[in-house]
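Lecture 7 notes: from sequence to structure.

We start with a single chain of 723 residues. Read the sequence below before looking at the structure.
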Amino acid sequence: MTSIAERGFGRDTSARTALERLLDPHSIAIVGASANVAKRGFHAIRALQQSGYAHPIYPVNPTAMQILGLDVYSSIDRLPYGVDVALIALPAAAVPDTLRRCSAAGIAGAVVLANGFGELGDAGAELAAALSTVIAQTGIRVIGPNTSGLINVSSGANLVGLHGVPPGPISVITQSGNMLLSLVNDDRAIRGPGFHAYVGLGNQADVRYDECLTELAGHPGTGVVAIHSEGFIDGRSFLVAAARAVPDTPVAVLRGGRSEVGRRAACSHTGSIAGSDAVATAVLRQAGVELIERSDELAVVAGALATCAPIAQGCKVAILSDGGGHATLAADALAARGIELAGLGAQTRLRLRQLLGDAAAVTDPVDVAGATDTDPMVFVDAADVLMRDPEVGLVLIIGLYGGYHLRFDPGLREIEDAAAARLLELVTERRVPLLIQSCYAGAEIANHDRLRAGGVPVLASIDHAVRAVVALERRGRRLADAAQRSSLVLPLPAPPVSGSGLLDEPTARRVVEDAGFDVGAWSFAATVTEVVAAVADYQRPCALKVVSAQVIHKSDVGGVRLGVVAADAARHAQAIIDSVRTHVPEAHIDGIIVAPMADAGVELLVGATRDPIFGPVVAFGSGGVMVEAWQDVAFRAAPFTELEAYEMIGETIASRMLDGYRHLPAVDRQQLARFLVRVGDFVAAHPEIADIDLNPVIASRSGTVPVDIRIVVSEETPGGGHE
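Now the structure, written as tokens:
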């Protein structure tokens, strides 16, 4: 064998990025190849051969001559220059040096199987640091360590060793090899559409979820990206990647590790109620991700999103059933998920009556009442009638469909086969998606398989069918208003706010005013005499609030007085000082803020916190002293749009108070939404701001005015997430 210098450069790989070459390799080196049938270095070669991988495979072993009919290379530097991927089947301690040698040989990326890195204490942490150093210095792309591998089903690049993965449109990203096994087996159980690619990220030393999502979503063979995550290293980058991918490729995510941990310090109302799961759930949905609650639903939802058109916005679901019991269960399950049934038009109901007879129920859900028992083709005619109704965006067939020849008469098989072919034609002609739940979905039935092959899911479970419908309805809404949604890309930082830690309120008010927010009239009084003068100048009842770095929740220690008039101003100011000194003896009192009482309105919480995973996040909900007790809050990642602000408002109990509830004035929702957008823009542009708490904000006919303002400035400014 010749040296690298003698061989020169091999084929031109410049047209593809290193990550593209890693995820779709046209040549693979097995470093740690073995003739021992018990070793992973043997299994990897055999799996590639059995999967039909047609590109070069290069075993690397210092002593062997041939393995499974392939010539063996004694070392990495003997390989042809520019191999796409190295599968490293070596102990953890050997990995950093091996990666350096791979990089020197022009190898674009590596799949590192070994564990024993960051997950195994101090020694593992040292190895992980060495691994990171090599990656940074060489630029080689790495999947893992502690990974199950990767699979490109269409090319046969099977570096997992899992046999018989059916080809199809689902691309998978996980940290767990067991989750891949579960997903493949679940897909087989429901006779789902199959898989395009799989990446097991392991410890994410280099390649992350966002990069894989972007790459796999762009593959022509990907119809959906199904993700299982135990944690995002860079959550903001994932949100941006998801928001970009979703208009063309649906994304479904099943999350582990959802317990509420790591709450922020209680100095911020926003931080104290921002449980990690609540934030993650809100911002992932904001990015257009379909969140999966149960592990058995991931294959179902991913399969439906990959093969079915979404429900057009404004359209509803029509249930077509051959049994009232099943129809009722489906209708209940849809209603529980907020999915409306179609209000069928008069002409639709008339045609159904003529087709199905007097015993049928022709309002949604439609029950054929035996009209299909002897002629399953009637299902097709009924589905056609429903698809023509302008309010119907999806037809859900419930019951025995496709199994009539098993239940009643074997002679119905040919009719059911013909019905399946015609249903597929209707889906194309009417452009209305179809989904089928059948008691016989688990049987080997040709007409079911034909429907599945044509992109119509056939499922045994009513609940699974409903969950798929929910996903298609959400996707339809998302696509309809995609242009009105945020890219979630962070702007370049604005000039920073000065100071660090919790700013005193006068400083915080000036920061907010300088940013263009109206905080109403206010004064800072250093003495009781100045308090009296300020109240007299405003010529109306005022609020008095203590200013002290040691006092966070002012009302809890008697640091607030409301409705104070000039005649009583001195007494109230002194009472504030005395009360604070009693409750917080160590407090240094800087002075008192004096502000005219705000107009009557709804008390709201508006805040922002810098989530350690997802970056700046804005909170909105019910405000005042009961904010923690009510836990009425919605979150959005900043920056966000006015549409997203409207949605955030609508998710809260507080929204019910905005339209003139009892004695409260009606609030201009558009003005409130714009206020929320401006808060989001402000915190997104100021990475040094760790928390903002505006509580309460008084929303009234005259405007949206923050009454109490707290800002925490971090000494450490996070980076990333900008473009």
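The first strand starts at residue 28 and ends at 31. Keep this in mind for problem set 3.
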